[in-house]
Amino acid sequence: MKSQFSENFDYRVLGRLKLPNFSLQKTAYVQGAQRLTHSHENPRFVFVLSGAFSEIYERKKRECFPFTTIFRPSFEKHSEDYHGKRIVCLRIDLQPAWLKRLCQYNIKLDGSADFYGKKLIPLIKKLNNEFDNSDDVSALAIESIMLETVVATARPERKSFLKRKSPRWLSNAKDFIHAEFSSSLTVSEIAAAVDVHPVHLARVFRYFYGCTIAEYIRRLRVEFACQALASSNESLAEIAVNAGFSDQSHFSKTFKRLMNLTPTEYRAAILSR
């Protein structure tokens, strides 16, 4: 069904991000904007970052507030009334093939739904941060967050993995990451290497190591860069490539965020000792 717009539908796209399994867009809506009945080809998550609006779907009505999470299946007909102030939403279109693969593990989203809860808020905040500060590891990070989001909204949380001793496969996954950290890894590739489900890997890894896989990989890349800055005369561009960063700009940005120093400042501090 082709989208239809009312005359007073007013919005502004704040940014877009295209990834292999997801298409992301952050949008700000003007108070009073209305969108007539329409639908979307791909299944979609909508995360309300600020403001409030209401929508009609399947002859039902839902009110959406900050940190509301909405799931819309493919071709669901709905209309929207943006009555609140400073309305900003982050939407993620899912490739059907990605969602279908999850069904093999009995993880299903069968119909339109909306969610609000404490366990979703940190996921939404992380997702928004990855969108605003995307780099070459963001694809892996966003995949991890979306896996957790799907599990959180598809079925009750299960904590059977919370054991005192980490499983052997987790150590193997860590070794695999250390060996391939400079490559463009995905959660699915790492999970396949140790023969576990991607969702299970993402959640168990964060539980035992205190960070996401993407955060861990960024730390490994920065550690590698620190050694190169201290022991070689390689240029920043060469170090960036060897560490796995897509370019020097992403390298410098990530390095500064984790080390509170630019690569140049770090090298100067080390050489002055």
Query: Strand order within the widest sheet?
Result: 1-2-9-4-7-10
Largest sheet: number of strands, sense, barrel closure: 6 strands, antiparallel
What structural category arises from helix and sheet content? Answer: alpha+beta
Number of helices: 10
Provide the β-strand percentage band: 15-25%
* CA radius of gyration: 21 Å
> What is the straight-line distance between the termini?
67 Å
Q: How do the helices and strands line up, and which of them pair or pack?
A:
Layout: E1 11-18, E2 22-29, E3 33-38, E4 44-50, E5 53-57, E6 60-64, E7 69-72, E8 78-82, E9 87-94, H1 96-103, E10 113-115, H2 121-132, H3 138-154, H4 168-180, H5 187-194, H6 198-209, H7 213-231, H8 236-243, H9 248-259, H10 263-271
Antiparallel strand pairs: 1-2, 2-9, 3-8, 4-7, 4-9, 5-6, 5-8, 7-10
